[in-house]
Design brief:
The structure is a homodimer of 346-residue chains. Chain A is α+β, with helices and mostly antiparallel strands. The longest helix of chain A has 20 residues. At the A-B interface, β4, β5, β6 and α10 of A face β4, β5, β6 and α10 of B. Chain A binds a DNA duplex (30 and 30 nucleotides) through α3.
Chain lengths: 346, 346
DNA sequence: TGTTAGCACTCGGATTATTGGAGTGCTAAC
DNA sequence: GTTAGCACTCCAATAATCCGAGTGCTAACA
């Protein structure tokens, strides 16, 4: 069967009504809409067709219809197409360059939660492709050396290195020169074991001590993926009875928001070259979230720093609004962080 | 009326039974206990007395009794007395010195949540009394200077300072010497405006540029109280029907766990010189938490770094266990972080 | 052939009765 | 001071009832 124009209009009407009310939609409700002038009986016939096509579902005999995952999918896909060129008019968010990246992310995620009434999350930027900018070892006291690493985008990492027998100033100075001249400009990815072992050789006779330091530095740089996830508005799910009426469900969902890894995998954007991606219900492959939809977007702060933003809500999420807000936000980030400063900035 | 021995025994029995079951306790249940050999009728008389004294409450006519806030209070106070000398036997937690303080705190708060089945929280250590250990300015590029500050306890702070006209190496070197010689060993608190302005004078003629740097440094050091709060196990509240049966209540509670400031004020320990403090229901002065109890404890990592840990649960919390675990935990932290340093204690 | 009115039927959700049992307070006897 | 006995209360769980929104189907109509 084919989805003709009238069927599409009806499907849209059903979904939009359901988005608003959260209640199954009956034929009568649709027939009363002015834009299509049909009796409820006709609508019923069409609905029957739509159901046969798997786009809508009847929770039980003699109830109204609700969209199926497949129905949502279709709706969202078409929506995205329409949205593609559209200009949004969200009011300007207060984004300013922050020295503290963390603070900025928290602000954003909070802003989103407040403005959408859904649960939101954001990852800290990852920066594999980031280049090393500057690096410094300093003597703190006899046994401790502070290693400071600055990467593009002014991402700063510190590491205190404990040593049984400290280095003297002379040695530290040499090391600093060596490190900076050899590693500068390399991306984090490029600094791997072979680079390090080459450096060790160059360091010459003191290599015993120095290799300790280098190991620690290498460790500090390529530090285990410390992506952070910040969340906000988890309690917004209580605003949607279909998510919170059943205490167990609500509990599982909120719980899912406490765990970092499941959240990260939600925001994975593998297999999608679109910046904005919508995953619906079962597509999420997460038992706790089977009644949810997740909209994710990439943000890019320049300098190879990019991360993901996610919004979690009920399937009857206001996709239109959410996609719009995300588009605006990522656009604004772009503007602030890469505007008129084509070389680079924090 | 006086709380004689028998009344106390009965009260204890009521509270303990209620802690286990969460259901109002009837006279018959108590009378069946072997340690006191009384009929239910007698118990009823005593209960009537206890109610008159405000220690227990009858949710409605002809129901069993539950402890009142006042009752809990009495119970907890006496419990703490008994507990005072007792040795606990919790199995060793894996605590090791972490370079990343954040990670340690997250581990602890998670450990607590898992082991108590309550919601838990911990503040990052505050360190007003911490002494400055080391400090370094480095030139990153023409316009940016990196300021690194190390305090006791190896707390490291970074700050990128943007300058229109950069400093040359010579100037930076001088500044480093000046800063370290003047500020070293001072506590964060001691480095206030007057110290800074004195420094500015000493810096001499280049003071224009330099004062920019100093301002930024001062700012970085005394950075707005950036106490963090980490939480875990918020969803544990779903394990207690009296907290989660009503969706609104549960929502409010979980929501309270998303906000930093309310949590901080919960963990305030003003007015209590005890390391461990129990607040019950209305004592918390927080509408969302009126059905909860909060147990808080101080931890001390030495070097003037101390913070608070909190456990939030239903009023019928297992106070005994919670207090025990907290005692153990703070003890272990003490041991690991200040071992062989017998001068001060928590 | 597509649309519509009409009608019998279904089913979930809300509301109202019904019941059982745990618990109390009181009284009188030990 | 303690206890047995009894009448009474009230919640919570279960069952019974009702209501209405919504459907599918059929027959008539344009």
């Amino acid at each position: 069967m084919e989805l003709d124009d009238r069927k599409w209009t009806i499907l849209k009407a059903i979904i939009q009504t359901y988005l608003e009310t959260g209640e199954p939609v009956g034929s009568r409700t649709i027939s009363k809409m002015p834009e299509l002038n049909l009796s409820s009986a006709t609508i019923r016939n069409e609905m029957s067709d739509l159901e046969e096509m798997g786009l809508i579902i009847q929770p039980h005999t003699s109830s109204g219809r609700i969209p199926s995952d497949k129905g949502y999918r279709l709706y969202v896909d078409r929506l995205m197409e329409e949205k593609e060129a559209e200009v949004s008019q969200m009011k300007q968010v207060m984004i300013s360059r922050q020295d503290k990246m963390e603070l900025l992310l928290k602000q954003i995620v909070r802003y989103l939660a407040v403005n959408t009434n859904y649960a939101t999350m954001i990852t800290s930027p990852q920066y594999h492709r980031t280049k090393l900018k500057f690096m410094q070892l300093s003597i703190v006291d006899e046994e401790q050396i502070l290693a400071t690493v600055v990467a593009e985008g002014n991402v700063v990492k510190n590491r205190i290195i404990h040593m049984e027998h400290g280095l003297n100033r002379e040695q530290v100075l040499q090391l600093n020169i060596l490190l900076n001249s050899r590693l500068n400009g390399l991306t984090i990815e490029q600094i791997n074991l072979s680079t390090i072992s080459k450096l060790k050789q160059e360091a010459g006779i003191q290599s015993d001590l120095i290799s300790q330091v280098l190991d620690a530095v290498a460790d500090a740089i390529s530090q285990e993926e410390d992506v952070e996830v910040y969340t906000s508005g988890a309690t917004n799910i209580f605003k949607y009875p279909e998510l919170s009426a059943d205490t167990d469900k609500a509990s599982g969902l909120i719980h899912a928001f406490e765990e970092k890894h499941p959240l990260l995998s939600l925001m994975d954007n593998e297999g999608s070259e679109h910046a904005i991606k919508v995953s619906i219900g079962s597509e999420l492959q997460n038992e706790n979230m089977k009644d949810c939809s997740v909209v994710t977007a990439s943000y890019d702060l320049g300098d190879g720093m990019y991360g993901r933003i996610g919004i979690v809500g009920p399937k009857r999420m206001d996709y239109d609004k959410v996609v719009g807000i995300l588009k605006d936000l990522t656009g604004q980030l772009d503007e602030v962080y890469r505007n008129g400063d084509p070389d680079k900035q924090n």
